[in-house]
Amino acid sequence: MTEPTTQPTHDEAHGGALGQRLNWLRAAVLGANDGIVSTAGLVVGVAGATQDRATLLTAGLAGLLAGSMSMAAGEYVSVSTQRDAEKAALAQEKRELREQPEEELAELTRMLRERGMSEEVAREAAEQLTERDALRAHARVELGIDPDELTNAWHAAWASFLSFTVGALLPLLAIVLPPARWRLGVTVVSVLAALCLTGWSSARLGAARARPAVVRNVLGGALAMGVTYAAGTLLGAAGV
Ligand SMILES: [Zn+2]
Question: Does 14 map to a domain?
């Protein structure tokens, strides 16, 4: 008697590409979150010291630009460094494949065996992979990188710049657009609401529980605004 078998789903086949897209999306949400928290802390702090709209706008805009450019530069440096390391590893792999092809074939066979193939199958697979594209096979199996999908540092930098800017625009507009007596309330409420959303999204994109992420995110933002507002109020009262 044969058991009815369920059809295997093929979601896993696309896991790599989908996972990478989710990582990008999550990085964008976290970048926006940074923009919201740092700019909100900045403008609320200045609002503690002054009612002057032009000062608030200047401070908020400077914070937006400084933050987005620092995020972009940091991302550019970190991705470039990683890319350089990956390129160097690929170059070394290329050299080894040219100078000691036998050892490299044995190495690939051993790594495929460690992944659960029998000696015979691993040998056969290693030979076929080497014949087709030895460098790509070693890059994937040995280094865990895809030579066609090295992250572009400029793309990463732009993504950071844009996501931080989008986040920073919210507290900036919330502090300068409403009439003076509403501006703090509007800013605090809209920032905390936005932090609920970014906390929830980043947790869901990372397949983590949403509630603790939302609570931590909102508390972090509230703390940032509370501390800078207190500092701004003290400085404003002291007439600095
Ligand atoms: Zn190798």
Answer: no
Taking a 5 Å cut-off on Cβ, the residues next to ion ligand 1 are 104, 138, 142
Do the domain assignments include residue 49?
yes
Domain count, the chain: 1
**Segments forming the whole domain that contains residue 159:** 22-234
153 and 41 in contact (C-beta within 8 Å)?
no
Determine the distance separating the centroid of ligand 1 and the alpha carbon of 92, expressed in angstroms. 9
pTM of the model: 0.78
3-state helix, strand, coil in the chain (%, to 5): 85, 0, 15
Angle between helices 153-176 and 53-99 (to 10 degrees): 170
Q: What is the pLDDT of residues 110-126, one digit of tens each?
A: 999 999 999 999 999 99
